[in-house]
Amino acid sequence: MEGFGIIEAAKEICGLLDKLDVKYAIRRKDDNEYSYLEENELSIRLPNPYVSHAIFINLQREISLFFANWHAHYCYEEADFSELCETLAAILKNAVCSASVFLGEGEEWNGSVLAEKSNVEGKPPEETFVGSRIMAQVYKEQWEKSGAEVQFVFWDPKYNKKVIIERKG
Questions:
Q1: Domain residue spans in the chain?
Q2: pLDDT at 106 over 80
Q3: Of 137, 87, 133, 89, whose CA–CA distance to 113 is shortest?
Q4: What pLDDT, in 10s, does the model give residues 47-103?
Q5: Phi-psi bin for 8: left (phi > 0), alpha (psi -120 to 50), beta?
Q6: From CA 137, how far away is CA 124, in angstroms rounded?
Q7: Mapping DSSP to helix (H, G, I), strand (E, B) and coil, where does residue 150 land?
Q8: 63-67 β-sheet, strand order
Q9: 29: buried, middle or exposed (CB in 10 Å: 19+, 13-18, 0-12)?
Q10: What is the Cα–Cα distance from 13 to 31, expressed in whole angstroms?
Q11: Alpha-carbon distance 93 to 76, whole Å?
């Protein structure tokens, strides 16, 4: 897939979405919601059949994938593009979710990661954000200092989970 660009990437992504039987719409620059796009750029919108939030894939100088409060950027090269397709499929199959932390009473966003479903079900929330137990302890201490809300958002909301971390001290 060397030397591919926006159109080729869009075709590949749409092919994947067709295989997964996911509805989508391709958008171009207009005067409203997509005015940020340049003339040759595209956005693919995947409406969620369960709730109002959608997935957006912007094909610009790089490819950006947006889901809930999480997003990532990918280059137009084979390894990155494969990772994008794997991530997109995992989101749509509910194998991963957007895990986001809001400090205090839930008003201050503190970061988001993509978390595997198995980690959400079997680990404390701070370990979802980092692989290291030492860093997990740093996060936990920060969250306990101000209080926090960890939101795990899946494509299918029946898997969503919210964890409240009470303020200590």
A1: 6-92, 96-165
A2: no
A3: 87
A4: 999 998 899 999 999 999 999 999 999 999 999 999 999 999 999 999 999 988 888
A5: alpha
A6: 11
A7: strand
A8: 25-27, 42-46, 55-59, 63-67, 70-74
A9: middle
A10: 25
A11: 24
Query: Which pTM value belongs to this model?
Result: 0.88
The encoded tokens of residue 23 equal 């509805």
Residue 31: the pLDDT is: 62
How confident is the model over 119-135, as pLDDT tens digits? Answer: 777 666 766 666 555 55
Name which residue leads in pLDDT, 80 or 34: 80
Task: Find out whether 150 and 120 touch, Cβ atoms under 8 Å.
Answer: no
* 140 touches 126 (CB < 8 A): yes
Both tokens assigned to 48: 């969620």
Q: List Cα–Cα distances, 6 to 40, 42, 66, in angstroms.
A: 8, 7, 17
At 68 the three-state DSSP class reads coil
